[in-house]
Write a structure and sequence with these properties.
Shape: globular
Radius of gyration: 24 Å
Low-confidence stretches: 1-22
CATH class of the largest domain: Alpha Beta
Strand order of the largest sheet: 15-12-14-13-17-18-16
Largest sheet: 7 strands, antiparallel
Bound molecules: dihydroflavine-adenine dinucleotide
Structural class: alpha+beta
Number of helices: 16
Helix content: 25-40%
Length: 541
């Protein structure tokens, strides 16, 4: 009877929420309902989860909620806040949270590293959205266990890619893993969307190397690869986070890396023929040996406003074999032996990530702290299948000159990415792509005016690039989440036909199979966010 009373109050508080002058009371009911449910579900388990629940009246709530938030766009006072953040330490606690959240029909956000470009792991993008939600933060699931003899590792979703790289390097100088560049990216979201880095052309994506996983489904069951079956195992390797369940940990196969790798960072300006060199790079970079990845970061250097195209590279081998490749295939770059730096794989990752030369690679296990400085940003992505003409590139440089801090990153494909089939995992952007563009705009000024002008810049640049990039669909990378390309309506948990819009862009033909898997494993659509795969019944045609 007591349970029923609690649920009744919870129900009343949920439906009446919008009419409360203050919703504190309602949130307290929800919180109480959740706690009651956790008590019922925890009878045979440790009750330690109660030490891991943070509500706004807890003095640590703000720091626990905000510590991994990178994007100030989602960290202001008017961004909706969860009524509770839970940081479980045991798998059984995650099961209890899921069972209770399903029972009480609570909206759940899952967070690993908190890098989601649209903040979907800890807030709702609709300012003023009053639907209560809970953040399940997996920060304590950060164990990394490397088996160098078997060349595999189990890594918790709450670990970072830097944790994984460093722990591998502690065990072996000739093993590595092909994931993202920034060390603080969380494993949970990164692997859920694919995950690429500077070894993409030789080894493909992080998700291509996942061989097992442990997941809590909407029934609160823990499944591994065998018990979840191959369809669900396929879907979680790139089908996007918060869609099929909570992935607790992943087993990955490691890759061999040479003891010596080579990096370089060569900058060209338009006065140094940058436009023509970038133009040539578009057709050369995807055809170079797979061991060689040369990306371009283009910005306009202030205050001179000179465009700089930075050729930033990792080569899996020594400088003496790299130099002749560059001289023969890409002489326009003018690389000399002095430009090339030899080091170990882990040192190369540390340097490419922006740490000063000589930094102890253990730095990769630290988190990035914004030091209180506002850092608003917006990202977008595109795939390029035919070289952009010189005049087209010049137009992009004009956009860079116009902005204070906009930049683009061009990452070459080809190599291993050509060899893996589009349907091997949900990530479909394989053969036929010369490179991917990432557009980034960041700013530090608060307020509507700054927001409008910076968001306006990136949207105009994206529009300008329309003729040069993939069409029907205009493909996009789900890990560079972009709500401009469409969203599910969350309000009453029904979905519009627009899910097909963004779904086809992120997943192409794999979208259909993802919908089928979702319909089988989570027909009630418990795991959901503004861009999660909907069950078929939720798609309006
Ligand atoms: P976060 O915790 O925000 O989760 C992202 C999404 O996954 C959310 O929807 C969340 O609910 C869901 N999710 C998280 N954990 C889950 C779990 N355990 N089970 C189920 N769902 C879960 N990408 C890339 O490929 N290469 C790169 O080099 C970079 N570099 C980079 C740098 C910086 C500074 C940023 C901010 C981002 C990148 N990215 C990137 C993009 C990155 O891969 C993407 O944002 C990932 O989703 C981040 O994963 P997190 O766990 O950190 O995010």
């Amino acid at each position: 009877m007591k349970n029923q009373n609690t649920l009744y109050f919870l129900f009343v508080s949920l439906i009446c929420l919008s009419s409360y002058s203050s919703n504190h009371q309602a949130l307290a009911y929800i919180d109480e309902g959740l706690k009651q449910c956790l008590i019922r579900n925890s009878q045979n388990q440790t009750a330690s989860i109660f030490n891991d629940i943070y509500t706004p009246d807890n003095s640590s709530f703000v720091s626990v909620l905000q510590y991994p938030i990178k994007n100030t766009r989602f960290n202001s006072s008017d961004n909706p806040k969860p009524f509770s953040v839970i940081t479980p330490k045991e798998e059984a606690e995650v099961q209890s949270v899921i069972l209770c959240a399903v029972e009480l029909n609570l909206r759940l956000r899952i967070r690993s590293g908190g890098h989601d470009y649209e903040g979907l792991s800890y807030t709702t993008p609709e300012k003023g959205d009053q639907t209560p939600f809970l953040v399940l933060d997996l920060t304590n699931f950060n164990n990394v266990s490397v088996d160098s003899a078997e060349k595999t590792a189990w890594v918790g979703s709450g670990a970072t890619v830097g944790d994984l790289y460093y722990r591998i390097s502690e065990k072996s100088k000739t093993l590595g893993f092909p994931a993202g560049v920034c060390h603080s990216i969380g494993i949970g979201g990164h692997f859920s969307g694919g995950g690429y880095g500077m070894m993409l052309r030789k080894h493909g994506l992080a998700a291509d190397h996942v061989v097992d996983a442990r997941l809590v489904d909407a029934k609160g069951k823990i499944l591994d690869r065998t018990s979840m079956g191959e369809d669900l195992f396929w879907a979680i390797r790139g089908g996007g986070g918060n869609t099929f369940g909570v992935v607790l940990s992943w087993k990955v196969e490691l890759i061999d890396v040479p003891e010596t790798v080579t990096t370089f960072h060569i900058v060209k300006t338009p006065e140094q023929n940058a436009t023509n060199i970038v133009h040539k790079w578009q057709s050369i970079a995807p055809k170079l040996p797979q061991e060689l990845f040369i990306r371009i970061i283009a910005i306009a250097q202030k205050p001179e406003n000179t465009v700089q195209a930075m050729f930033n590279s990792l080569y899996l081998g020594p400088a003496d074999t790299l130099l002749p490749i560059l001289q023969q295939s890409f002489p326009e770059l003018g690389a000399t032996r002095q430009d090339l730096g030899e080091m170990s794989w882990i040192e190369a990752l540390t340097t490419i990530d922006g740490f000063p030369k000589g930094t102890d690679p253990k730095a990769l296990t630290g988190t990035i702290v914004n030091e209180g400085k506002p850092f608003y940003f917006k990202g977008k992505s595109d795939y390029v299948k035919n070289p952009i003409p010189v005049e087209g590139l010049e137009g992009v440089w004009d956009f860079l000159r116009e902005s204070n801090s906009g930049l683009i990153i061009m990452s070459p494909y080809g190599g291993r990415m050509e060899e893996i089939s589009e349907s091997a995992i949900p990530f479909p952007h394989r053969a036929g792509n010369l490179y991917k563009i990432q557009y980034i705009m960041d700013w530090s000024e608060a307020g509507r005016e700054a927001y409008e002008s910076h968001m306006g810049w990136i949207r105009r640049l994206f529009h300008y690039c329309t003729p040069f990039v993939s069409k029907s669909p205009r493909e996009a990378y789900v890990n560079y989440r972009d709500l401009d390309i469409g969203r599910n309506s969350m309000g009453n948990s029904t979905y519009g036909a627009e899910s097909k819009n963004w779904g086809i862009k992120y997943f192409k033909n794999n979208f259909e199979r993802l919908v089928t898997v979702k319909t089988q494993v989570d027909p009630q659509n418990f795991f959901r966010n503004e861009q999660s795969i909907p069950p078929r019944s939720h798609i309006l045609n």
